[in-house]
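Tutorial handout. Part one gives the primary structure; part two gives the three-dimensional structure as tokens.
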Amino acid sequence: MTQAHGAQTPEEAPDEPARGTFAERLDFLCRNDPRGPFSNPQVVQMLEDRGLPSFSGTYMWQLRTGKANNPTLRMMDSLADLFGVPRDYWLNAATAQSVNALIIKLNELKVSGATPDALHRQLAKFTQKMAEGTAPEALAAQLDELARLSRHGVSAETLKSLQDQRVSSIAMRSVGLSDAGLSTVKSFIENFRLAEGLPAELHTPTEGDPGAT
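Part two.
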């Protein structure tokens, strides 16, 4: 394997999660990251651009080909953070298998209009949810549902539009409620947000805030 291996197209990516060695898992991420595929120099450059612990391109090639099999914990954490996967990805076979399966499903959503950066952010969110105790199977089921909708012609933009419409509909139905009624609705929404791992309240820009209009 050479550094040019990272220039493979998504069509050449494997259909199943990578096997168990560090090199195989690193190679899988380089080829299947939703933003990729990435060459070895690209990975090193991204580490440097993000201020993450980095190393030479030669050592990256050695890690990816298995010619070096002694990465430090600092290096493994740096690579995990770059790719948006759990830090135990390298040492935990069950975690690696679950995450790789999620990555494959995320890449399949590109046909629905989802952008590479958005898919990478979603992977990072899934990693956070797994750390909070969400079962990988539940996350995979969400992606399966999105894929099903995509096969029926529902694009990512359509889903976002429908979500915005539902939010607007809920707000409009609050018009005319008493103060007590509004307080009850507010309490329900805050409880549901907390249950789904969201902050209870959204920050509303005030005069002087950068986002205020």
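Part three, for discussion. The chain is about 60% helix and 0% strand. The radius of gyration is 21 Å.
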